[in-house]
Design goal:
Protein name: BnaA02g36830D protein
Organism: Brassica napus (Rape)
CATH superfamily: Mu homology domain, subdomain B
Largest sheet: 4 strands, antiparallel
Strand content: over 45%
Radius of gyration: 21 Å
Helix content: under 10%
Structural class: mainly beta
Number of strands: 7
Oligomer: single chain
């Protein structure tokens, strides 16, 4: 089985995403994996049946790819087709809001009262 995933950031070039984690489901019969990534690190996690690709810092207006070859164990039992679950992704983009609202500064005033 071959897996190719491309992640592309479409936010501004001056911004960046932190803690990007992409989880790519694989069949339970996975025996061996071999990856190549252009950014970050990837590993196979058998406890959740996923390839886990982590990118610490991902700049805006860039793209990165993961290519994997997955070797499966052949089974003699009943053949059930694998229903591919969705890919999961998590990340944070500091100082970015979907609405475009920006806070340029915040003024906080403290009043102290003596009793």
């Amino acid at each position: 089985m071959e897996v190719n995933v491309k992640v592309k950031s479409v936010f501004g070039a001056k911004m960046f995403a932190l803690g990007v984690v992409v989880k790519i489901p694989v069949p339970k019969q996975t025996a061996k994996t071999n990856f190549q990534v252009t950014t970050g690190r990837a590993k196979y996690n058998p406890s959740i049946d996923c390839l886990v690709w982590k990118i610490r810092k991902f700049p805006g207006q860039t793209e990165s790819t993961l290519s994997a070859e997955i070797e499966l164990i052949s089974t003699m039992g009943e053949k059930k087709s694998w229903t591919r679950p969705p890919i999961q992704m998590e990340f944070q983009v500091p100082m970015f809001t979907a609405s475009g609202l920006r806070v340029r500064f915040l003024k906080v005033r403290f009043n102290f009262y003596a009793f």
